[in-house]
Structures are given as structure tokens and as C-alpha cells.
Design brief:
Layout: H1 7-33, H2 40-43, H3 45-51, H4 71-83, H5 89-95, H6 100-111, H7 127-138, H8 150-153, E1 159-160, E2 164-165, H9 172-184, H10 194-199, H11 204-215
Antiparallel strand pairs: 1-2
Helix pairs in contact: 1-3, 4-5, 4-6, 7-11, 9-11
């Protein structure tokens, strides 16, 4: 599931590093000459250089939408990059020396961005594959001890505040890469890592089916994450235990 970095990805990383350095230099210069030329819009420029304006994502499918996702989830992921549970050079560079307060500020900014979702990309999957994906996402598979995705990720699959992410509005490439990273142990979350446990129970073809169905779904205008679980999740997940927004 791991993929080599493409030339376009190197370009994104170089741009983000340059933006981060310039923003830091401007902040330092402002502090020396008077009031700091600082704002949250400046602080998130390294993020938007890859994740798109307001975090709405770009055509480069590997960079996910972060706009409108629950703030606790975004904070948890920044901490995971900082603590080495997730691995991506640019994200590690940005997060590794930041305080919790700073990461909370970044997470809150993107969580508040309520921007429209683009229409889904046309799928090449067969009707049978999409139906299997729908079953896994909305019903689960008791024979594999897999609960429905919407039992944790919200009735509308747009997440549950404060710490559960939405699964819609993200490319199949990104979803497949992340599930593959969990399956191989490259990605992890705070213990107990419920996603890692679930993904390793699934067949490889089930991963493709679930991500194909998720990526093919349109999102209604104005849709937001749920504010509470409809029913108590059947799994214990370290990042959402007792509604705690931090790992």
C-alpha cells in the first residue's frame, strides 16, 4: 500500500517548506520592529499550500480535505505526527516542535471552515464492488466482526465531534492509502487502536470496496459532523475514549 513520492509531491513539499520559512521570518521581523505581523491565516499557510485554500483539498488526491472536520480529530492527528504514530515528512516537520496550544489553534481554524464539498469523482468500480462497499459501510460484516462504519463515523459519515473524522469528501486514493497504512502498521493511533484492529480483519478486496463506495458519495450542502453518537460505539478507541478530544 505504500507509494513512492511523486514529482508533484516533491513540489508540494518544497512549496510548503518555503512558505513555512517565510511566515516564520515575517513573524520574527514583526516582533523585532513592533507589533507582531501574525495571524491565524499566516500560521496556516504551510497547511493550505498542500491541503488547499481553507483546507478544502486540491486535485492532488493524496492530500485530504481538512476543512470542517472535528477539531479534536485534527488535533489528534497533529499530535500523532508529532509523536511518531503517523509518518509524512512535511507533517512531521510542521508538528514536531509545536505546543498543544498551537496545534489546538490550527485544528480549531480548519474545523471552523465550512466550505462546499466538490462533487465526487466518477468511479470505475463495478456495481457489485460498490454494493459490497455499501454493505460494509452501512451494515458491517458480523462474520468478520466488523461493525458498520457509520456506527462510529456518524449517521451521515461526516464524523462525530469532537474527535471522530468524516469519511466522505475524501479521495479513494487517500482512503485506500490510510487503510493500507493501518493494515501494515505504518499508521497508528493512541491505544487501543481500534482502526488498526478492524482493518486487519478485513480482506484486501473489502478495503477497495469500502473506499470506492465512500469516495462515490455526494455530500449535501451544509452538512456537518454529528454532535453526538446515535448509539454508544461498540469499540473502544484511544482517541475518542469517553469523548476525550485528545489522545
Amino acid at each position: 500500500m505504500n507509494r513512492p513520492l511523486r514529482p508533484s509531491l516533491f513540489a508540494w513539499i518544497a512549496t510548503a517548506l518555503l512558505t513555512f520559512g517565510c511566515a516564520h521570518a515575517a513573524d520574527t521581523a514583526g516582533s523585532a520592529s513592533g507589533p507582531a505581523l501574525d495571524s491565524i491565516e499566516q500560521r496556516v499557510k504551510p497547511c493550505t499550500s498542500c491541503h488547499g485554500n481553507e483546507g478544502r483539498a486540491t486535485r492532488e488526491g493524496y492530500f485530504p480535505r481538512i476543512a470542517g472536520k472535528p477539531a479534536g480529530y485534527l488535533f489528534n492527528q497533529l499530535v500523532n505526527f508529532r509523536e511518531g504514530r503517523r509518518h509524512f515528512p512535511m507533517m512531521t516537520y510542521i508538528a514536531q516542535f509545536q505546543t498543544d496550544d498551537y496545534l489546538h489553534e490550527i485544528a480549531a481554524y480548519f474545523s471552523a471552515q465550512q466550505v462546499p464539498y466538490p462533487p465526487p469523482e466518477p468511479t470505475k468500480s463495478t456495481a457489485a464492488v460498490l454494493e459490497r462497499g455499501r454493505q460494509l459501510v452501512t451494515e458491517g460484516d458480523s462474520s468478520l466482526n466488523i461493525p458498520a462504519c457509520n456506527s462510529c463515523h456518524g449517521n451521515r459519515l461526516l464524523g462525530v465531534a469532537p474527535a471522530v473524522p468524516g469519511l466522505l469528501g475524501v479521495s479513494q486514493d487517500y482512503l485506500t492509502a490510510q487503510l493500507g497504512a493501518w493494515r501494515t502498521g505504518v499508521r497508528a493511533a493512541a491505544a487501543p487502536d481500534c482502526m488498526g484492529q478492524l482493518v486487519r480483519r478485513m480482506h484486501p478486496e473489502d478495503l477497495d470496496a469500502a473506499t470506492a463506495w465512500l469516495a462515490s458519495q455526494a455530500i449535501p450542502a451544509g452538512a456537518e459532523p454529528d454532535t453526538a453518537f446515535a448509539h454508544s460505539p461498540s469499540l473502544q478507541c484511544g482517541s475518542i475514549l469517553q469523548g476525550n478530544p485528545s489522545p
